[in-house]
Write a structure and sequence with these properties.
By secondary structure, the chain is an alpha/beta fold. The chain contains 24 helices and 27 strands. Helix content is about 50%, strand content about 20%. The strands form seven sheets. The protein has a six-stranded parallel sheet, sandwiched between helices. It has a five-stranded antiparallel sheet with strand order 17-16-20-19-18, with helices on both faces. The chain is elongated.
């Protein structure tokens, strides 16, 4: 009794110790709760800062880098740029500009080569003599010509279009939206000034003119977006992508997807180019004319200035390639890029620049924030965690770059900041927890020393971090020599491997484990101990195994003695059960055929009749008597007769269902119970099958002999005056069963009189009906 009280006291102390350990070291927080909290908090902060535009310029710069790292694209052979450079102005111009006469000559020359569309990216709001009337006539008679105008806004008065082209609605605006950092990243398709109709852009006008022969016109898509040839152009909203409060009043905008541009020195351009001097050069030979027709015919031709003096240049996503001396793109080439973007999307299926909705972008940022937090939690070591974050960050940039090749602009800077921020937050949190854990371990060590049972605590590297005095006394080593050591330093290899496996099982399963094991102390004495291991986790997510040991050596010795006595009793009981089972089998089975005997038959018949009465089924009783069996006994001897009875029993068992019961009543009489019979016709089929089976020859001692049987059939409840009453006394039930058996016996004798080797029903009318 005293020992039981002492054990109960130990258990209470252990429960209090676990409760304290949980509250102090684990802080009552699960890993996924605080880890997700950090990830969500950092991601939320990043999303809020992004909403205030903190990352906008960084994101746009990263966006430019995605463009610059794209693979070069083939030229757009549908577009030809005729540039007016400084040499052309000196040679063909007057006062640094082209006269109307020169411009009319150029347009006339272009027109003779039958292009689909001509874009004039040169202002002609005022006449430039000489040749003004000639230029008006060219404007009037060139339906494929599109001119430019600049719409006025708060910062610019605007430039009007040539009146002739304006009247014919062959004008498009060339206004360009410039971002805060001075770069052009957007393509404006429509502008609706106040109190004015909708204006189409110069690039869009040229595209529509080029597509006229293909009968492709502007339509409104299902989402009420502009649509050309089934391709929708979703508008850029003020906060789409990296933009924050973008100027949506500047019209219907899409992100500009400029073709890859290489430095000017490489002489590689997004479309074919020629100078104005080349265009106006005398082409007297047929070969020269044919070459020009091939270059300009059925194309979209742009005519504009690329001279530095025109001051018509813009910075684009490709401009940062050259550092401070950024390469600028001329206005006419920029318009050509806009035209190429729309045409390539409509005719070639080239992707537009697309972006996710805000909820998806928030989930993207949250996901990378959680990755940073989880990675720092798993690695723990700050230096290794930094390398891991660096690799994951490179993977993030690689994913964004790869996806951008398919036209998707995914956020890069916010998820990168969230990744690093959550990792830094977790690392800082761990530093704080390690300091707290150090203080807690010192206090924990003083608490467990009050427990008389040996107690130890191991970390995930299987190092002892805390042991109490009882454990040190039991193992025979001091605490100083054991801390931060492993089992292999003190125990035999086999025991150490076992301890290691059990500790690892607790770490992996996270379930409480209790096992019995051998324990050899420093003096070489081996004990049998019961070790209870449980898993605990501190607030930093570190896992520890707490083991409590009890010496069970004496108890095991007593159990071994009891087990030996119990084994002897079990063996005696087993032999007794076998003898009982054998006696039961002998009592209920025929010793010759091993079939159920008359007693067992009556039990089976009673069960079958009870079920038939409850479920409304038929039960058939077949009474079999072998024909001429006495003669076989007299001629061949009783040993052959016995063999024949065994063979008949085997054949009867094999030809009937598993649910049917075959019994031997004595001599050459057999009876079969057929429960759950659907009709008397089914009984006929079974009886015929039995007769056919028994008619096959039997071979004994090399001699073949034949035998037949006469079968009498009675059916319950058809042949019974009353139903089988389960509630009746046993004598009444016995009389009903004997009556059914007598009826089958009577029917068997009728079969004998019918000539044997046949079957007969107790009620012949049943056979007649079936």
């Amino acid at each position: 009794m005293a020992q039981i009280v002492q054990v109960s006291t130990y258990q209470k102390r252990l429960r209090k110790l676990r409760k304290w350990f949980w509250s102090v070291l684990l802080r009552r927080y699960r890993k996924d709760r605080w880890l997700s909290g950090i990830a969500v908090g950092v991601a939320g902060l990043v999303i809020v800062l992004r909403g205030f535009g903190v990352f906008q310029l960084f994101e746009l710069t990263a966006y430019d880098q995605l463009f610059q790292r794209r693979s070069p694209e083939p030229q757009d052979n549908r577009i030809v740029l005729i540039s007016v450079d400084e040499i052309d102005l000196r040679r063909l111009g007057t006062g640094g500009t082209l006269s109307d006469q020169r411009l009319a000559e150029a347009l006339t020359r272009i027109k003779t080569y039958h292009p689909r569309a001509i874009g004039l990216d040169i202002y002609r709001d005022l006449p430039v003599a000489p040749g003004s009337e000639l230029l008006k006539d060219v404007f009037q008679n060139t339906p494929q010509l599109i001119g430019i105008e600049t719409l006025s806004d708060s910062d610019f008065a605007g430039v009007k279009a040539p009146p002739v082209l304006k009247a014919k609605q062959q004008v498009g605006f060339n206004n360009v939206v410039i971002d805060l950092d001075g770069l052009v990243r957007r393509n404006t398709l429509f502008i609706k000034p106040k109190d004015q109709p909708v204006h189409q852009s110069f690039a869009l006008k040229l595209v529509l003119k080029y597509l006229e022969p293909d009968r492709i016109t502007l339509k409104l898509g299902r989402s009420k977006h502009t649509q050309l040839n089934g391709v929708e152009f979703p508008p850029l909203n003020p906060n789409d992508g990296a933009y924050i409060n973008a100027d949506s009043l500047r019209g219907y905008q899409i992100l500009a997807n400029l073709r890859s541009v290489l430095p000017i020195a490489s002489h590689s351009y997004p479309f074919e180019r020629m100078t104005l001097s080349e265009l106006l050069a005398p082409n007297v030979s047929p070969q020269s004319q044919e070459r020009m027709i091939k270059r300009l015919g059925d194309r979209l031709v742009l005519l504009g200035s690329t001279a530095q003096s025109s001051n018509d240049f813009f910075l684009t996503s490709y401009s940062s390639r050259s550092g401070n001396n950024a390469e600028r793109m001329s206005g006419v080439e920029l318009q050509g890029q806009f035209v190429s973007q729309i045409l390539s999307a409509v005719l070639d299926g080239r992707s537009l620049i697309r972006f996710w909705d805000d909820p998806l972008e928030w989930l993207w940022i949250l996901g990378w924030s959680w990755v940073g937090a989880f990675l720092s939690w798993r690695i723990r070591a700050p230096q290794k965690a930094a390398v891991g974050i660096l690799l994951v960050g490179a993977g993030l940039l690689g994913i964004c770059s790869l996806v951008f090749r398919w036209g998707w602009w995914l956020p890069m800077i916010p998820p990168l900041v969230a990744l690093v921020g959550s990792a830094a937050a977790v690392t800082a949190y761990f530093s704080y927890l390690r300091e707290e854990l150090k203080k807690s371990k010192e206090f924990f060590g003083s608490i467990i020393n009050t427990i008389p049972d040996p107690v130890y605590v191991k970390n995930q590297r299987h190092h002892w971090v805390v042991v109490n005095d009882a454990y040190c006394s039991f193992i025979g080593h001091s605490r100083e020599t054991m801390i931060n050591q492993v089992d292999y330093d003190f125990f035999p290899p086999q025991q150490s491997a076992h301890f290691w496996r059990q500790d690892e099982l607790t770490f992996n399963s996270r379930l409480e484990q209790e096992c019995e094991e051998e324990f050899t102390n420093a003096e070489g004495t081996t004990y049998l101990v019961a070790t209870k291991r449980s898993l605990h986790q501190d607030a930093a997510g570190d896992l520890f195994v707490v083991g409590v040991i009890r010496d069970i050596t004496q108890r095991k010795q007593m159990e071994a003695a009891l087990r030996s006595t119990a084994d002897e009793l079990v063996q005696a009981n087993s032999e007794l059960a076998k003898a009982t089972e054998l006696l039961s089998h002998i009592a209920y089975h025929d010793h010759l055929t091993n079939l159920p005997n008359r007693k067992r038959f009556h039990e089976q018949l009673q069960q079958s009749l009870e079920r038939a009465n409850e479920q409304g089924h038929l039960v058939a009783l077949l009474f079999l008597d072998l024909d001429g069996f006495k003669q076989i006994n007299d001629v061949h001897g009783h040993h052959v007769g016995d063999s024949l009875l065994k063979a008949v029993a085997q054949r009867l068992t094999n030809c009937l269902r598993n649910s049917d019961v075959v019994a031997r009543l004595g001599g050459d009489e057999f009876v079969a119970i057929l429960p759950n019979i659907p009709s008397a016709a089914a009984v006929c089929r079974v009886a015929e099958k039995v007769l056919l089976t028994l008619n096959q020859s039997f071979v004994f001692e090399g001699k073949a002999m034949s035998i037949s049987a006469s079968i009498g059939v009675s059916i319950y409840p058809t042949d019974c005056l009353t139903d089988f009453d389960h509630g009746a006394d046993s004598a009444a039930r016995e009389r009903q069963m004997e009556s059914l058996l007598d009826q089958a016996d009577t029917a068997m004798y009728r079969a004998k009189r019918m000539g044997k080797n046949c079957y007969a029903f107790f009620q012949p009318s049943i056979a007649d009906r079936h």
